[in-house]
Thioesterase domain-containing protein
Amino acid sequence: MNLFCFTGDEEDISDEEINAWQQETMKEVEMKKLPGKHFFIFDHPEEIMQVINSSLGNKT
């Protein structure tokens, strides 16, 4: 199972900082940017759950 990093496209973090997670795991790190600031997760719960379910092999 890969490591997924979700960020808001208006957050103050660079792609390089997000990709640094690769140094902390042997799994592949995947990055997904969604519209918004730090609390973007509250605006995109369905999309986030879809990625989680897909990574777990669920078809819902």
